[in-house]
Structures are given as structure tokens and as C-alpha cells.
């Protein structure tokens, strides 16, 4: 019985591996043709999350999209969103499994941006201007989002409309981010605040200028 169970288990795992390979979306696969652009070496892992509005999505070379990642433009499939791309992901990125990137106006993700799992990025939010109308029935507002090249977004981070992250920024896991943050920022918290920055003179330091050095490290390690 153990030999049969082992053989069945091996067959199941090999079959699932073959399904994942066959189901991955690339520039050469039929599903890849629907995108405005999928660069060389792009792989969207199987099973994907909700994907629609592909004609407004561009993904740069050698970017890897994890399992169950949702990539969408617009509220639902079908509407005409204009002549230009809306969601742009640069080259060499890695988007963690279970993440959601939901674009309506403009989301720009630079090159070599890495995320942990279950990150949420959107350029649209509900409003609550009218206290007599259910919030879900009030027309939402859009505000562009930009994430600079070389940045890292920790697991479960939420990037809200109107956010601009500069280059080489770190977003702590679980942070809820809105606003503008310069290059070399470390942001954390709910709502997120800039807790560290970098200058050649001070290295990595807190916003008040106090140098912060991790245990076991010196300033030359940064």
C-alpha cells in the first residue's frame, strides 16, 4: 500500500508541476498576446489571480509574477480605458504570491522592484463625502501611484492612491502607505511614516539626524 501511495503521490506532484509550467503566462503563450506588452523572460505563475484589462498592462523583461497575483485595469472587463497603458511594471521585478495590483488611472512600478506576498497596490479609493449615500455607491477617486526602481515592499504592505515612493525605498511589512517619500526612505507603520533615510554623510539615519546602526553592523555595512 505504501508503494502504491508513493507512486500516486509522485504522479500527482509531477502532473501538478507540468500543469503549472503549461499554465504560466509568457509573451509566447496565447494569454500573453492579450497584454499591451510582455517582455522577454516574463512569467506569470499558474494559477493566476484575476487578470483583466490586459491591453492596458505593460510588464518589462524578466519580471516574475507569483501565483494568484491579480493584475487588473478598470473595475471590470470590457470598458474602453483609452489609448495609453495604465499599469506599467518594469524589468527584473518580482511580485509576491497573492498580491493585487489594481489600476484605474496610472500605476508605475520601476525596475528591480521586489515585493513580499499579499501586497496590495491601487490608485483608486472609495469616498465618503455624502453621509447619506452608502460608501460603496459613491463614485471613487483616482490618484496616480509611482514606486521607484530598486524598492522593496514587505509582506502585506498596502500602497494607497496618490503615493510616490522614490528609488531604493523599503516599505515595512503591513505598512499602509500614502504620500510622497524621497529616494532611500524606510517607511513603516499605520499610517506609514518615514523612519529612516540615507545620506553619504550620515549613512542610514532617523529623520531627526540620529544615526541608527543595527546590532552587529557598522556604518560601512550600509
From TrEMBL:
GO MF annotation: an example: O-acyltransferase activity
What domain of life is recorded for the organism?
Bacteria
Q: Which keywords has UniProt assigned to this entry?
A: Acyltransferase, Transferase
Does Transferase appear among the keywords? Answer: yes
Has the keyword Flavoprotein been applied to this entry? no
Q: Which InterPro entries match?
A: Hexapep, Hexapeptide_acetyltransf, Trimer_LpxA-like_sf
Question: Which GO terms of the cellular component aspect does the record hold?
Answer: cytosol
Similarity remark: Belongs to the transferase hexapeptide repeat family.
User: Which PANTHER family does this UniProt record tie to the protein?
Assistant: ACETYLTRANSFERASE C18B11.09C-RELATED, SIALIC ACID SYNTHASE-RELATED
Protein name, per record: Acyltransferase
Amino acid at each position: 500500500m505504501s508503494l502504491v501511495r508513493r507512486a500516486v503521490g509522485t504522479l500527482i506532484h509531477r502532473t501538478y508541476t507540468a500543469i503549472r509550467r503549461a499554465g504560466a503566462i509568457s509573451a509566447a503563450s496565447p494569454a500573453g498576446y492579450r497584454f499591451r506588452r510582455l517582455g522577454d523572460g516574463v512569467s506569470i505563475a499558474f494559477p493566476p489571480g484575476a487578470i483583466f484589462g490586459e491591453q492596458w498592462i505593460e510588464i518589462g523583461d524578466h519580471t516574475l509574477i507569483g501565483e494568484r497575483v491579480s493584475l487588473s485595469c478598470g473595475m471590470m472587463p470590457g470598458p474602453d480605458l483609452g489609448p495609453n497603458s495604465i499599469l506599467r511594471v518594469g524589468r527584473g521585478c518580482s511580485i509576491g504570491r497573492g498580491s493585487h495590483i489594481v489600476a484605474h488611472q496610472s500605476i508605475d512600478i520601476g525596475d528591480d522592484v521586489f515585493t513580499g506576498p499579499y501586497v496590495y497596490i491601487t490608485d483608486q479609493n472609495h469616498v465618503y463625502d455624502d453621509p447619506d449615500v452608502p460608501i460603496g455607491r459613491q463614485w471613487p477617486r483616482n490618484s496616480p501611484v509611482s514606486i521607484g526602481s530598486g524598492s522593496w515592499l514587505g509582506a502585506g504592505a498596502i500602497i494607497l492612491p496618490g503615493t510616490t515612493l522614490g528609488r531604493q525605498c523599503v516599505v515595512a511589512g503591513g505598512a499602509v502607505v500614502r504620500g510622497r517619500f524621497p529616494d532611500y526612505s524606510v517607511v513603516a507603520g499605520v499610517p506609514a511614516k518615514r523612519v529612516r533615510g540615507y545620506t553619504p554623510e550620515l549613512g542610514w539615519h532617523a529623520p531627526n539626524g540620529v544615526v541608527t546602526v543595527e546590532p552587529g553592523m557598522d556604518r560601512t555595512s550600509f
